[in-house]
Amino acid sequence: MARDYHANDFVVFKGTPGLSNPSFERGVFMHELGHTLGLGHGGIDPNGDPDHTNNKPNYISVMNYLFDLPFNAGNTWRLDYSHGTMLPLIESSLDETAFLTDGSGYNNGVVTYRPGIDALCPAAPCDPITPTTVLALSYTIGSGPKDLNADGLLTTTGVCMDLNYYGTSSPTAEANTPSPCEIMNDHNDWAGLIYALVDESTDGAPTNPPIELTVAEIQAMQAFLPPAPCLADVDQSGVVDVNDLLAVITGWGTCAAPPSLCSADIAPLPVDGRVNVDDLLAVILNWGPCPRP
């Protein structure tokens, strides 16, 4: 836990069974370090203050609960702050043709994400939706189009969805309270870090320490946010087939940067930066049509 947003110190505890592997520890360490360097769970807002909008699908950062730990980020997870390359999302009028577009090619991968059709706003945009249980929705980071309302069409305006509402079954309070009509911005975390030390002689007691997940909430999220259903579908065609096998063979070896050049690195989770026998076996063992999200 960090002492405050922009502070000199933080503490990370380790040793909880099932939650103490190296990737978890690194993610938690970098998350809490980010708070001391001025970052909120949504980065930094336009006023230069910590952004507290959590679970933004277009904010690919360890500061975001969607991407801070490997179990809920699918093969999109990496130990990194956001680079600010994703397009904004306007919940009251989403553009399905460019839902999660990343022109830089830096962000990619498939992740299972809770908001589904039940999170659609009512006829009057921005009216609070009726709290309910929200079904999982699988999407591809950086891919662009997504038929959010499942009407068979891709529309540029008018689709209203509460993207960070997970339904009443969510294990975290932030995600089980409707919050329609937010504007979700990505943020270049690296460019906004505050490295200056705080003068502790005048700082006093923490005024707004970040509230973090408890062990029980993390364990609940492991069950609540399952892995993406078809990670072996490298080319996102909906079928694991010879094209995915060829992608693994072609990409064999140590991954290059950006990650979009290494889409065949699909296993194990979190991905290891190499295309090797693990990825080959993932394709073979998941051969055939992908399950529908």
Provide a brief overview of the structure.
The chain is α+β, with helices and mostly antiparallel strands and 293 residues long. Helices cover 17% and strands 9% of the residues.
- Overall geometric form: globular
Total DSSP helices: 6
Cα-atom Rg, whole angstroms? 19 Å
Low-confidence stretches: none
Helical proportion? 10-25%
- H/E element sequence: HEEEEEEHHHEHEEHE
Tell me about the biggest sheet?
2 strands, antiparallel
Mean pLDDT: 75
Main sheet: strand order: 1-6
Provide the β-strand percentage band.
Answer: 5-15%
By helix and strand content, what is the structural category?
alpha+beta
How far apart the termini lie comes to 34 Å
Using DSSP, what is the number of strands? 10
Architecture overview:
With 293 residues, the chain is of the alpha+beta class. It has a domain at 239-289. The protein is 17% helix and 9% strand. The strands form five sheets. A two-stranded antiparallel ribbon has the order 1-6. The chain is globular. The two termini are 34 Å apart.
